[in-house]
Amino acid sequence: xxxxxxxxxxxxxxxxxxxxxRRLATTLMDASTDKDPEVQEQIRNSLCALGDADPxxxxxxxxxxxxQHEKLPFPFRALILFSxxxxxxxxxxxxxxxxxxxxxxxxxxxxxxxxxxxxxWQEAASQVLVELGKKFLNKVMEEVLGKFQPGILPHPAVxxxxxxxxxxxxxxxxxxxxxxxxxxxxxxxxARADSMKSTLCFALQRxxxxxxxxxxxxxxxxxxxxxxxxxxxxxxxxxxxxxxTWLPQREAKVRLAVVEALGPMSSLIPEEKxxxxxxxxxxxxxxxxxxxxxxxxxxKSLCQxxxxxxxxxxxxxxxxxxSLLGTLLAQICAPADPNIPTNAKNHTExxxxxxxxxxxxxxxxLLFLLPKLESGSERLRVGSLLVLxxxxxxxxxxxEIKKLTILSSMKLPLQDGSNKVKRALVQLISAMAHHxxxxxxxxxxxxxxxxxxxxxxxDEPSGIPEENSEDPTSGSVRSVSVSTLLLLSTTVPRxxxxxxxxxxxxxxxxxFSPALTPLCRxxxxxxxxxxxxxxxxxxxxxxxxxxxxxxxxxxxAVSSRPFLDPGRGEAALRLLRLLPTEFSHPELEKIWDEEIxxxxxxxxxxxxxxxxQQDWEEKLLQFFRHSLxxxxxxxxxxxxxxxxxRQLRDSxxxxxxxxxxxxxxxxxxxxxxxxxxxxxxxxxxxxxxxxQEEEEREGLAFCFGICxxxxxxxxxxxxxxxxxxDVFKKSLGxxxxxxxxxxxxxxxxxxxxxxxxxxxxxxxxxxLLNSRLESQILKNLLENGHxxxxxxxxxxxxxxxxxxxxxxxxxIGRALATGNPRNSGKSGNxxxxxxxxxxSGNxxxxxxxxxxxxxxxxxxxxxxxxxxALLVEFLKAEAPDALRTRLRQRALDACxxxxxxxxxxxxxxxxxxxxxxxxxxxxxxxxxxxxxLREALGSLLELLQELLRRRLNPHGLQEIFxxxxxxxxxxxxPERERAVALSNSLLEFFLENLRVxxxxxxxxxxxxxxxxxxxxxxxxxxxxxxxxxxxxxxxxIQLCYExxxxxxxxxxxxxxxxLKEGLExxxxxxxxxxxxRLASVLGRRLPPEQLPELLRCLFQAWEDPDGNCSRAAxxxxxxxxxxxxxLLREQVPDLLSWIHSRLELLEEEQLxxxxxxxxxxxxxxxxxxxxxxxxxxxxxxxxxxxxxxxALGTEPALNSQILELLLEKLDAEIPYKEKKFPLGxxxxxxxxxPGLAVTRGLDELxxxxxxxxxxxxxxxxxxxxxxxxLGCSVGVRIPKFLQGKEKGGKEAWGYAVSTLQAAxxxxxxxxVVQDVGNSGGWELxxxxxxxxxxxxxxxxxxxxxxxxxxxxxxRSLIPVLGSVFECQRVTGTAFLAELLSxxxxxxxxxxxxxxxxxxxLEKDPSxxxxxxxxxxxxxxxxxxxxxxxxxxxxxxxxxxxxLDDRDDPENLLALESMEGIPKILEHLEERDxxxxxxxxxxxxxxxxxxxxxxxxxxxxxxxxxxxxxxxxxxxRDQILNSLVxxxxxxxxxxxDVVKASKLALRSCAPGLGSEELREMFGNFLREERxxxxxxxxxxxxxxxxxxxPSLLLRLVSTNLLYFRSPWRELRAAAAMFIGFLxxxxxxxxGQQLDLDxxxxxxxxxxxxxxxxxxxxxxxxxxxxxxxxxxxxxxxxxxxWxxxxxxxxxxxxxxxxxxxSxxxxxxxFTQxxxxxxxxxxTLILIPVxxxxxxxxFxWxxxxxxxxxxxxxSIPIPIPIPSLLFQL
Length: 1766
Prior knowledge:
Number of helices: 87
Structural class: mainly alpha
Helix content: 55-70%
Strand content: under 5%
Strand order of the largest sheet: 3-4-5
């Protein structure tokens, strides 16, 4: 804010600021009604911020706002009041009296505005008054006292305000208290409500505390004359009322308020009154502990009452001391409730109570507490120790004389096992140390206890826990103890001479090892302090202090693990440096002052994780060696080895410390000049080592190895003696079993010895090693590496011995191959692991293909093959999936070092080693210890590098990757990750060590790329990154083989590094892009001759178990095909077979799409080759081949080209082959496989929606080819190899139909397909006899639904009509012929081309072609009526010529001509009709009586049409000649022929010259009307005789000809016709007839009818007759037989009765036959015949019937008499 705003000299500026503050404040207060707590808090902060700018203006604004908004709810009024209180608190000094008075008046009014208690509102107002009372007390009291009237209970807020004012302004408020108490005390009895009582107690408590504070600082008070007794009377009365009346109340809040008030009031009441009430007060208050869960107010008040009692020297207090102490201790020991926040304060008040009582009653207090230390209750013991510690600190003078008593009472607590007691005791020891207790006799036991607690296990993070935390752990006790020990050593001066050198005794014992860090720290501080003191003040050496040698060894061993505890190594080294000369050697001080700071500096620079442990131990051993070498008196060294060995045996050191001690022992022995001592100590070590413990075996080997540097002969001698000793021999005594080692122990012993030989060989001087290697080291090594059973060596099963053997062989190999490192650090590390897998991967001194050389040149070892085979067996014997030991790593390391030696391994040995090594490591599960796996992988990498080093060429690389490949493609992610990482390291190693002297091919580059490149999309990010590095390394190797230097920078390869960022993203779309870019690089850098092999291997990689990698392989394949596919023309068949195999094997949709994409890419570059290769696939096409065909259809840019190629193939292929049957019995047609393949390929191609565009483009040619193919497939059998293989048993025509349908569908002809299907056309096409009908249905549907597509189709079909194959000509002719029947031909101007193409077919060798051609000519009239007139005469000539075809025995051609001629007649000109129509009429006349119904019908119809078209006299004669046939055929058995006859007669009627006949024909011969032939022929004959009497003889003779008709209906009609003619001739005309001839003809006809009658009786009548005859016979037999058998006499009687019954049955049967015969005759013979004919029919039936009747008449006569006789 600008400074002008606060300048008082500028009223305008100030008024502007004030007005702005007022507006802002008003706005904020208006918004205070928001119910959101966060908003309210923000408003309050904003109001306070405005108050900071101008507090008085702000207060005035708030007061004015509250006065103006009287109805503002109390929560929002409280908000404003709280804001005012905050402003007053911050700016009290700046307020004027006026503002203060106004604020006080406002607050007093707001505080008492509501009669009921509204705590938030009233508290806010009271806070304003209290804050103002700190400075303007008189103004505030003036307002508040106005609300405090005598005799009227004040508002509770007024009392609280008085109390808070008394606490806030003691010096100002105490003078008012006399008057306030004088007014208040009389009203105490008026309080009835519990809340009022609580408020009154609160006010009295505050008043008491204020008075006590005033009296305590009376020298500073404004009125020092005020004394305690000035308030005694008032508080005495109030005390009595509260204690006696209000304290027994049931309300807990009232009781607590009373207790809190009684505490401070007890110091103000008269002493005699307190003494009097004390026996009642103390039990009453102590009893409240059981009633209230929160004890702090009670404890606080009790402490105040006790202070008052002790202050007046109360005599009654001692009597209640026992119960008082018991209650207080019980409260101390009570468990703390975490839900009560005042527990800590309560604990403090309770301890204050003990402190108050310690002054008058110290003896009684200790007498009470010390026995409690032996109590059986843990809580009592802990509580007593806590109270005792508090008393030592709070009442030291009283406890001083009780030191020995207190120390003697600590014996049992020191043996307590409770962590709570231990922690309390440690805290007590700290207090005792400060007050001189530990200097007394018995203090050592307390210090030892403290150190033992420092040695507790550390199971929690270090740090001092809270004092009152429950259930401390051992770790927390240890932390407290460590802190206490350091505190005593550094901050308590009187403890220095107590702790030094006493603490040195605890450095060596094993139980105190965990406490070494705090011990060393404390001792280092004490040693530094002792060093600074004069010698006369140095404490005397006493007790069992360790020797200097023991301290040196112990501190070095502690320093070997510097971070076991924080600061452990630093503390031990500092102590070692600061040790006085009496605890070291004088010559060592200078060396240690120089070297120990260097070691300390290294420790400070490292942490536990960054420190190299082996390097650190080596530096410590070097320091130790240097220290020993600097001592001139070597006799000081002689005690060192025994002391080190003693510490080894006595200590419980960790594994690494124990090994370090062994190393130290070896160093000490190596520095010892006495060889006898060395032998003796080595013998003792061998005899007493604990071979069952791994660290013992390790340490023993290190000891011998380090010692062998200076004493090789002695170490080998002792090892030889020990091996030859009885330790391995089994005695035969009975009791020897009790002292012999078990087999397992012997294995462990052998393991230790084997390891010793390895360390000795590793550390031995090179000049001495070679001479002793075979005879002394390897011999004993192999002997101890096997178990002997019956004298035969057997491979050991003990894993420890195996591990030792492997490690020893590794050490020997390393020593021979690389020379002997002359330091213990490298000799101590036989893993050799660093780098990516813990292995550097590079072997020094070699960069080519030669093996490594030791210092002495090429080294050969005779046992190499045996050792390698042994190690391989170790690898094979390991569990394939579990990694529990380091045997794999050690065995692999050993093999690696052996490979560098001569002689080299053979191929089979290398292969077995590779398989075993990879299988033993890569397939492991993730172990619990990742270091094991990392080390094993590092060892495996080193082995592979060594194998590769021996064959540093493409063959060697291929050899390794042939074994590594299955692991790279493993379905398990960990295996793949390890294998790819190994591959990366191997390729980098190969590249770094490659030396190319000539340009040679990297022949296996493609295989390696195909193996590794797909891993760029693996699901594991690490694999993706490593695989890309592998690809990059392979391409760099290729560049080297091409002649480039290894440092050559290729832009494409450098760009691969940028792809790593894309590999970090698991999104497959990004990985797809990365793989595409990678493929581009591969395509440019790969030699062209290796491209097919790379593609083959990549196609095989599609089967990768990892889905991402298989997809990546597909992406790489397609990208390479796109990039370099143009070079692969000759490999197209192979590529296609690979794609086909992928489609067969893979089910994943994405990979199948990728395979199809590969096909498309190839097809875009080599379409003809692709089509040829696909057509060469075996039939029937499998699903994969079909998928490939369909894939070709998905590419729009390719569809047209593929279709064109297929159509070329389809047109060029022979559709079928003729196969003759043996013996010349005929031939069959067999479809050719190429043609079927093209058809199937087209079918699959057309099934893809994307090919619609190409189909539309090629549709005419496609349709023509498929239609022709369909024609060639009808009646053609598929080859035998296809029979039974095709689904649905399709024939050849089925393939063609399916393909044609697909083409129509793709061309938008789905309606055509449906239409033809609905009419059954597709099925008809497969029937050879009706194939043309199906084609016609197709042509009709095409004409109706796809008319605009027809012109090019027609033009392409016309050449087919000249094909050498009849089937093709039939199909084409049928299609074109049907088209002519549709108008679309005219619309598309196709009539003339089609007619011209059909006319030559009249002479076609095929009858069906000629028929279809004539049909087409006939169809032209209906399809193009307006255009046909120009061609009608020519068409008619062709049709008429068809009537005369001699090569048509069935007259099919004539039938087609007769159907076509009527269509043309309407369009003929008159001049063309006469000559041709007569010829037609004469030619068709014979067909009237043809046996074929269609010929009769068509010829009759055609005749009718001819008669309707021609009215010449010549044709009238033809009508008369044809009249009888037409009339007789009205009785033709075929209805359609009858219908045709009616039509023809109606057409011929005008030419008969009789109006009656024309009218009658018009009425009677309507199609819908039935015809009564007899009546009709009767009238016709009558009119004919009347109008044309000259025709009688012609009519009769023609009818007589029909007496021989094959149809009985026509014969009957002819007889009737003749009868009616005869009936209507007159006498003159009758003379022209030859009646004899007629009668003869009729007799012959009648004979034919009689012969025919038996035939007329149908079987449905004969069968019932036979049944009626047979049933009675059977009944009679069944009735009479049972009667005749028992009564033979009845036989003569029953025979005539039976005959009579049978005759009656026959009569009845004859009657049944006789009655229906006339009826059947009338039905079967529709024309009336004379009665004579009927008589001739009945006589044969009637005569037998009458005879039977006559015979049977007498038979029944004797029947009654016979029955009577019976």
